[in-house]
Automatic annotation (TrEMBL), chains A, B:
Organism: Bacillus aerolatus
InterPro entries per the UniProt record, alphabetical: DNA-bd_dom_put_sf (IPR009061), MerR-type_HTH_dom (IPR000551), MerR_fam (IPR047057), TipA-like_antibiotic-bd (IPR036244), TipAS_dom (IPR012925)
One Pfam family cited in the UniProt record for this chain: MerR_1
Name assigned to this protein: MerR family transcriptional regulator
Keyword match DNA-binding: yes
Length: 248, 248
DNA sequence: ATAAAGTATGACGTAACGGGAGAGTCAACA
DNA sequence: TGTTGACTCTCCCGTTACGTCATACTTTAT
């Protein structure tokens, strides 16, 4: 039942070193036999590996993959369905590339003219909608950006920021038993949205996604609920309504 | 006509830094204005960039790409046609991956059973036929490895090696009118396989592929048939059988 | 029982850029 | 005509995802 490393490597088509690496960074850590120290992979480990390779195929860095699959809100089935969509999208791009190559061949045979833009159609691998969707769903670049910005700030600036945050949290906490759709709640959440956009840049979708994280990820929930029990949930709802109302 | 770096980056969907990098390693070096030192890209540069990105998409390291496109024997049109084939192959693999995902979804819903091998179908990105073809066409790693190892050897060692080769060739030549599946032929070819793995490292698939080359590439055929007419063909058949028999 | 094959843990190497610093260049607008 | 903001240049260090030894122990096959 439990497989040794080479066998797993062969089945999955990766190197032994890769599996060592995944263990090192704690992305995929199998059990080890007490006596020999050998890594033993279960079938569940194999499933996880499959997931990892899917995400890798889609261009996610290992760090992000780790976050995603170890997140408490990670839903395997949902992920698979998104995978399918993204793969189909990828195939569409591939088709476009094939068309591009065919045009290039014809062009080289003098049959047609080809513009420079056409030359690179299908290559745009980073800016597509489903990957965007995935980034929003599972925590994304904007968060990294904020963190980076925070890193560059002076202590004083951080204090200002933290004061601002606290005041908004407190304001929201006071409203947390009213309706998320109320004018007051919406006004307060707008403050929050504007505030966030000082340190990062959030689309409305990202904002809504962030709200979802507040309840999905217990690290957030715990932090936020310090200002009042149920605040995370209230903010999540309020943010969702705000986002939906403000879409053109 | 001549474009500045940002414009090129935008058209091709790569970063400015990437173009800087390609200039550094002399993969793609545009002209520079004498006065400002700015890089100026011509339309020909753009074409080359397109080729580079194609090869990159197929997983070639930049070093190899440089060799390929700067080789005097490099034929743009031929390369494009192979590109198309490889892209189509890639789409096939992608289709397989999509099937795999769909199966996994059904599996997770308890509708079907799924074997471990099935789990990873479509992922095997390094061992496919067209990429193999490309590697053979434009020089491949195993050959480089052998060359490197050969380079490190003393004259004496080389002589030993050459003696070993000759003795195996002679042995095989003597058997070339018997059946490739016979015990003797298989034993002799195993010697050959082991021998090759002293200087390189050949998987069974690579071994089989090598055998195919013996008949496909006349430089090999000529060389081998010096030991007896038809030896190349005989070895090819014997190697294929050996490879197939030894896959567990 | 002894060799061959597999595995483990470091530690260093590599490829393909990313990203910032510091300084010069260009284009447009006031 | 000056200046401002977007581009560009050349270092140069950092990062990701492993590759590649070296060295030592364990398992498997003969």
């Amino acid at each position: 039942m439990a497989k040794k490393i080479k066998e797993v490597a062969n089945i999955a088509g990766v190197s032994v070193r890769t599996l060592h690496h995944y263990d090192e960074i704690e992305l995929l850590s199998p059990k080890k036999t007490a006596d020999s120290g050998y890594r033993l992979y279960t079938d569940e480990n194999l499933e996880t590996l499959q997931q990892i390779l899917f995400f890798k195929e889609l261009g996610f860095p290992l760090k992000k993959i780790k976050e995603i699959i170890s997140s408490p809100s990670f839903d395997r089935r949902e992920a698979l369905k998104l995978h399918r969509k993204m793969l189909i999208e990828k195939r569409r791009r591939l088709d476009q590339m094939i068309t591009t190559v065919e045009k290039t061949i014809q062009h080289s045979e003098g049959e047609i003219y080809m513009s420079n833009k056409e030359r690179f159609e299908g290559f745009d691998f980073s800016h597509n909608s489903y990957e965007q969707e995935a980034r929003e769903r599972w925590g994304d670049k904007t968060v990294d950006e904020s963190n980076a910005k925070m890193g560059n700030m002076s202590k004083e600036e951080k204090n200002d920021l933290s004061a601002g945050m606290n005041s908004i949290y407190t304001k929201l906490a006071a409203l947390r038993h009213t309706s998320p759709a109320s004018e007051k709640a919406q006004a307060a959440i707008k403050e929050w949205y504007d505030f966030l956009n000082k340190i990062g840049s959030y689309s409305l979708d990202a904002f809504k996604g962030l709200g979802q994280m507040y309840v999905d990820d217990e690290r957030f929930t715990k932090n936020i609920d310090q200002f009042g029990e149920g605040l995370a949930k209230f903010m999540c709802d309020t943010m969702a309504i705000y986002a939906d109302n403000n879409k053109k």
